[in-house]
Specification:
- Strands 5-4-3-1-2-6 form a six-stranded mixed sheet, with helices on both faces.
- Helices cover 40% and strands 12% of the residues.
- The protein is globular and about 45 Å long.
- The chain has one domain: Rossmann fold, CATH 3.40.50.1110.
- With 258 residues, it is of the alpha/beta class.
Length: 258
């Protein structure tokens, strides 16, 4: 039996660092993240193996996500595809909610054409911890509200909306850079996705014990260690994902753990 036919569920994820799993680092340095957790939780909940691929690349704007990842993902002939994007766009000086929304609707259209069940996510809201948080908050509110409005008549699209989750704004769900969630945050997102799919995640995923947090960096230290590298990449036209390949560019089989 081929890897593709080994299970009825074939789930592929596309997106940026949120979907790649940045912030949820394993001891060997690899990243895990909510999509990996969803694949494992899906297999555990159904008691059957599923096929899983993850084409997400950190640092990607929404248009490159769609242009570079959508068609390769659909070429795998998935049953389910999850999509999130726009977080990096919101950090740019000039961005348009309509521009991001157009990319979302292209994903909707192509999944409709291919008969693929779409799982739409919004990222969690990091704005309370950011020095430019009010701008991010306004843009995130506008984008999330626009996506909800545009999809209001599409009950067939699975929604896992994290932007409105006030619990996820607490610092204990975020890594030191304040832009990426830690393992606690990724587990809560995974629990929401599984719930949206009609499955129960392990109860503790909703609120893992908080990790011992390092002392908060002073403003100058935070700018030097986390914001300055980001600004340098913007000025030189580089991305944190340049040269990176997807961690699961083809199907891997995820088996029940129990």
């Amino acid at each position: 039996m081929s890897a593709e036919s080994a299970a009825s569920v074939r789930y592929v994820a596309i997106g940026d660092s949120f979907t790649e799993g940045v912030g949820d680092e394993l001891p060997d340095g690899a990243v895990r993240g909510w999509a990996d957790l969803v694949a494992a939780g899906w297999a555990d909940a159904t008691g059957e193996s599923i096929q899983y691929a993850n084409l997400a690349i950190r640092g990607r704007l929404v248009r490159p996500i769609v242009d570079e990842q959508l068609e390769p993902a659909l070429a795998l002939r998935p049953t389910h595809l999850s999509f999130n994007g726009g977080g990096n766009d919101m950090l740019r000086p000039r961005t348009s909610v309509e521009h991001v929304l157009e990319a979302f609707m292209q994903v909707v259209r192509r999944c409709d054409e291919e008969g693929v069940t779409l799982i739409v996510l919004s990222g969690a809201n990091p704005s309370a911890q950011l020095p430019f948080g009010s701008l991010v908050n306004r843009r995130g509110d506008a984008l999330s509200d626009a996506v909800v409005s545009r999809l209001s008549d599409r009950d067939d699209i699975v929604r896992a909306l994290n932007w409105y989750d006030r619990t996820l704004t607490h610092p204990s769900y975020w890594s030191a850079d304040r832009l990426h969630m830690n393992a606690r945050g990724h587990h809560r997102v995974a629990a929401r996705v599984l719930g949206s799919l009609g499955m129960d995640a392990p109860g503790e995923w909703w609120a893992l014990p908080a990790e011992q947090q390092a002392p908060a960096l002073a403003r100058g230290e935070y700018f030097r260690e986390h914001l300055a590298p980001w600004v340098r990449r913007r000025l030189t036209g580089r991305s944190s994902g340049d040269g990176r390949a997807p961690k699961f560019g083809s199907w891997v089989e995820v088996s029940p753990r129990g």
